[in-house]
Design a protein that fits this description.
Mean pLDDT of chain B: 96
Low-confidence stretches of chain A: none
CATH topology of the domain at 7-228 in chain B: Amidase signature (AS) enzymes
CATH class of the domain at 7-228 in chain B: Alpha Beta
Number of strands of chain B: 11
Distance between the termini of chain B: 15 Å
Shape of chain B: globular
Strand order of the largest sheet of chain B: 1-3-2-4-6-5-10-11-9-7-8
Shape of chain A: elongated
Number of strands of chain A: 16
Largest interface: A-B, 28 and 44 residues
Number of helices of chain B: 15
Radius of gyration of chain A: 30 Å
Order of helices and strands of chain B: HHEHEHEHEHEEHEHEHHHHEHHEEH
Number of domains of chain A: 3
Largest sheet of chain A: 9 strands, mixed
Strand content of chain A: 15-25%
Low-confidence stretches of chain B: none
Number of helices of chain A: 15
Helix content of chain A: 40-55%
CATH superfamily of the domain at 7-228 in chain B: Amidase signature (AS) domain
Oligomer: heterodimer
């Protein structure tokens, strides 16, 4: 990259709020499995005389978002109409917040290469999503599904505080965690629960360059790649004596490049006006305080607590992400139950980070009670009866097939437990000493290799079930006494 | 022309078995047919109404109480959605549209036992003051067939004046209940903004639209308002009804403070209309009321303000009529853009298009501040002026319209002249205060003259009480 240029990046993020019903109607908000146009009532369909009724749950979630963004919601905010014609916009206008949004200000803090970064939040507003249009290739018609019409969104607009693709990626990742941990959104990126629009410009001096907006990115990686591509493209244009055109661009995932969609020079006139059907939203301190005290634990508090257990930042971040990506696993709930015993909690976290999470990412797993599983696993490890290798296998077997009736018995049957019974091992070792006089002699002469050989014999005899540390200790004691 | 008993008595007759709901429905349907030359009605709901009549009669025979309005037939302006029936708002773009849900006001009337028998004509989408803007046909004034009934609730007012049903529902955005009531010689009430749910009523100017009764008497209007008013979960702008209800006795005029709006009694208002209003003021004084002249300094700005805010909201509210999901649709469009142009271009009438264009203009960037925003400032000023006045007086009196009913065709090619008809009704709409039109006499052509009575926000009960006292004076 050309070092003379400085990139400036701002990001708009549409967060789908996880309300039961839509922003202005009682129709269900969960369109993932529904057949087209089945979650639509007279309001979403834009019938004559239908009036929007504001969903108070959305206000609660927006308030949580404000707190997660380290600010408070505005006590007075309003809804406006944004007009344009399109078949997936039944009323001919989108209800949004233009002049007086629910959130003004706030910030997102995150670490990038151990350096603390802060990105300011300009504003965030609630708005109703449009429906979904599809244009089957080769056909002379388009299809409209209004299931998504009226879905509540919170559009979070950042300040242009970012200067690299890596920084932008870290920002969207942190924003994702904040919204997930505040329980504002389901955060299902695949279903577009969070969509990002990135504004990018480059400049050689203090003045900002012409920016482009690449819309509808739905993964952290595509945010990073689209920005990398845009920065490179814009620098090349300028170096070739050309101008960057202010325009909306899209991201072509297959080609890994941004493509021009429409110029912004003839800016659309949305004819915003206050929506007379919706009275202003007025909230007071008590309303905010009620929500503040019921806020779930934020990512930063978890970072603090996991650090106190003794996890490094890489382990911590893996757990933070997995905890929301695989919400049913309830990883942090599990760790929380062991938090009093830091050593135990750390062992558990290690198993989760090294075994459970990687396995979960690659396999379909059974529905199981992890508390029962890890209670047994940690206890067996603590008794020196389960090696780390065998612990991995035991956990994987349980994740695949579900919990057996009796975990310890199951482990034993599968030959996963170590022989740590001193008497039993002592007898076996006596036999080994008798059968290997030469090797014993070598040990007595100080040949350490011979110790390894004898331990190997013990392991072979016990089919790998002996605790190697214990076996060595017994063997050395016996030879010394000879 | 009043061939119906007071609503209370009709309902009482049904409950006591003196008459049946079915007979009342038949009577109303026959009258609608007999007076069809006035073209007050767009469609009758014969099947539904007869069925409802039978249901109510069965309730009575089983000893159940069908409610305060048991078996009372009524007519709804055709911008109310009545379940299963055509709802056109007198526009071609909604021709053939059948309502899949029902307006809250209709629900409440039905719950009280009333029966909707027909849908009345109006200016398409309620845009107008003469019902001549109906995309279907004109309605004739019951007092003179060559004249308009006023508008936009012209069909409703004419229907009540003709006695087609005991009452009708209208909507009033800038005078659309009051002015036709005045022209047809019936009582019309625009309640406080928000007192009656707008859910299920085709929107015109959402911050102005009010729903109210048109009746033969103040008492009838009070009962209807009592039934339809109050908060509604489907309209966030609704307000609670007066806990005492709206069924009232005439107020004691002694000591009542009444203001005559100076700006509404100028040369621009027809002499006979002014004389009738002045006579009412004098009668009031005789009964012990304190009558003073008051000023609404921004009265002359109200019309301009209204014709910015209202079209702005109209242009927005009419956006949904694109012919893609329901309503008028041209089949052979070659592109999406052409489809919009054809559906809306052919579906909307002249006046709707005019208001869409004005509204789109005043909301456009670059013009928003100069027009829409300024109009909002003026609106606030008007609201404040009303508050100042209502600190001094309890009610305001004045004419409803500058003239009595004008000739069909007289203003049809002059939209500005037609807008001027609203000059004395729009201020109350902008301020959201309740206002009524009470018939107080006739002019030399035997055409009715209406008195406009206004009160402060949420003083609908007091307004009705005063109207009742004035009605007694008129006799």
């Amino acid at each position: 990259m050309n070092n003379d240029f400085k990139a400036t990046i701002g990001i708009e993020c549409h967060v789908q709020l996880k309300t039961k019903s839509k922003l202005f109607s009682a129709a269900s908000n969960d369109a993932r499995e529904a057949k087209p146009n089945t979650l639509v009532n007279h309001i979403d369909f834009g019938l004559p005389g239908a009036l929007p009724v504001f969903n108070k749950e959305a206000l609660k979630l927006a308030t949580k978002a404000a707190i997660a963004l380290k600010t408070k919601p505005q006590k007075f905010s309003t809804f406006d109409r944004k007009h344009y014609f399109y078949p997936d916009l039944p009323m001919g206008y989108q209800i949004t917040q233009y002049d007086q949004p629910i959130i003004i200000g706030g910030r997102v803090e995150f670490k990038l290469n151990d350096e603390l970064k802060t990105v300011g939040i300009t504003r965030a507003h609630m708005e109703a999503d449009a429906g979904k249009s599809t244009h089957p290739t080769g056909s002379d018609y388009s299809l409209v599904d209004l299931n998504r019409a009226g879905t509540p969104l919170l559009e979070i607009v950042s300040e242009p505080d970012m200067h690299s693709a890596a920084e932008a990626k870290a920002y969207v990742k942190e924003l994702y965690l904040l919204m997930r941990y505040a329980e504002v959104t389901e955060g299902d990126l695949y279903h577009g629960n969070m969509r990002f629009d990135v504004n990018v410009s480059v400049s050689k001096n203090q003045e900002l360059g012409t920016r482009t907006e690449t819309k509808n990115l739905n993964s952290f990686r595509s945010v990073e790649k689209a920005i990398e591509y845009e920065i490179k493209r814009q620098i090349e244009l300028i170096n070739n004596g050309q101008k960057v055109i202010q325009e909306t661009r899209g991201w072509n995932e297959a080609k890994q490049k941004t493509v021009a969609q429409r110029s912004k020079e003839n800016a659309d006139d949305y004819r915003y006006m206050p929506d007379p059907d919706l009275p202003p939203i007025v909230i007071d301190d008590a309303y905010i305080a009620d929500i503040e005290i019921s806020m779930p634990i934020a990512p930063d508090e978890w970072r603090q607590r996991l650090g106190d257990i003794g996890l490094d930042s890489s382990q911590t971040e893996t757990l933070l992400e997995a905890n929301v990506d695989f919400a049913t696993a309830k990883y942090l709930d599990l760790i929380q139950q062991y938090e009093a015993d830091k050593k135990k909690a750390r062992s558990l976290a290690n198993l989760l980070v090294n075994v459970d999470i990687p396995y979960l990412k690659e396999h379909v797993i059974a529905d199981l009670n992890r508390k029962l599983l890890y209670d047994s696993v940690l206890s067996l490890i603590n008794q020196d009866r389960l090696s780390s290798t065998n612990a991995k296998e035991l956990i994987q077997r349980c994740l695949t097939a579900g919990l057996p009736q009796n975990i310890e018995k199951f482990a034993e049957e599968k030959g996963l437990l170590q022989k740590s019974d001193k008497n039993e091992l002592s007898q076996i070792i006596d036999g080994i000493i008798n059968d290997n006089i030469k090797a014993v002699e070598d040990v007595r002469k100080g040949e350490q290799k011979a110790v390894g050989y004898l331990i190997g014999q013990v392991m072979a005899k016990t089919k790998g079930q002996a605790n190697p540390g214990l076996a060595r200790k017994i063997l050395e004691e016996k030879i010394a006494k000879l | 022309m009043n061939i119906w008993k007071p609503i209370v008595e009709i309902a009482q007759d049904v409950r006591t078995g003196k008459t049946t709901a079915s007979q009342l429905v038949d009577k109303s349907l026959k009258l609608i047919n007999d007076y069809s030359e006035y073209q007050a009605i767009i469609v009758t709901l014969e099947g539904n109404a007869k069925h409802r009549g039978a249901v109510i009669d069965r309730m009575v025979s089983e000893g159940k109480d069908p409610g305060l309005l048991a078996g009372v037939p009524f007519i709804a302006k055709d911008n109310f959605l009545v379940f299963g029936s055509d709802t056109t708002a007198a526009s071609n773009i909604l021709k053939g549209f059948k309502a899949p849900y029902q307006a809250t006001a209709i629900n409440r009337l039905e719950e009280a036992g009333a029966i909707c028998v027909a849908k009345a004509n109006l200016d398409a989408f309620a845009h107008g003051a003469s019902t001549e803007n109906s995309d279907f046909f004109f309605t004739k004034n019951p007092h003179d067939k060559t004249r308009v009934p006023g508008g936009s609730s012209g069909g409703s007012a004419a229907a009540v004046a003709l006695g087609l049903a005991p009452f009708a529902l209208g909507t009033d955005t800038g005078g659309s209940i009051r002015q036709p009531s005045s022209f047809c010689g019936v009582f019309g009430l625009k309640p406080t903004y928000g007192l009656v749910s707008r859910s299920g009523v085709v929107a015109m100017g959402s911050s102005l639209d009010c729903i109210g009764p048109i009746t033969a008497s103040v008492e009838d209007a009070a009962i209807v308002l009592d039934v339809i008013s109050g908060t509604d979960e489907f309209d966030s702008t609704t307000i609670v009804k007066d806990e005492r209800g709206y069924i009232v006795e005439p107020s004691d005029l002694n000591g009542v403070k009444v203001g005559m709006v100076k700006e509404y009694m100028t040369e621009g208002v027809n002499k006979e209309v002014r004389a009738a209003v002045t006579k009412m003021a004098n009668d009031l004084k005789e009964k012990g009321a304190e009558v003073v002249e008051v000023s609404l300094p921004s009265a002359d700005l109200a019309l301009a303000c209204y014709y910015i805010i209202c079209p702005a909201e109209v242009s927005s509210n009419l956006s949904r009529y694109d012919g893609l999901r329901y309503g008028y649709h041209v089949e052979d469009s070659k592109s999406l853009h052409q489809s919009y142009v054809q559906n809306r271009g052919h579906g909307f009438g002249k006046e709707a298009k005019r208001r869409i264009m004005i509204g789109t203009y005043v909301l456009s960037s670059g013009y928003y501040d100069a027009y829409y925003k300024k109009a909002q400032v003026v609106r606030t000023k008007i609201i404040n002026e009303f508050q100042t006045i209502f600190n001094k007086v309890d009610f305001l009196l004045g004419p409803v319209a500058p003239t009595t009913a004008f000739k069909i065709g007289e203003n049809i090619d002059d939209p500005l002249a037609m807008y001027l008809v609203d000059v004395m009704t729009v201020a109350a709409s902008l301020a959201g205060v309740p206002a009524a039109s009470l018939p107080i006499g006739t002019d030399s052509n035997n055409l009715p003259i209406g008195l406009q009575i206004m009160a402060n926000q949420r003083k609908d009960r007091e307004l009705l009480s005063l109207s009742k006292a004035l009605e007694e004076i008129v006799g």
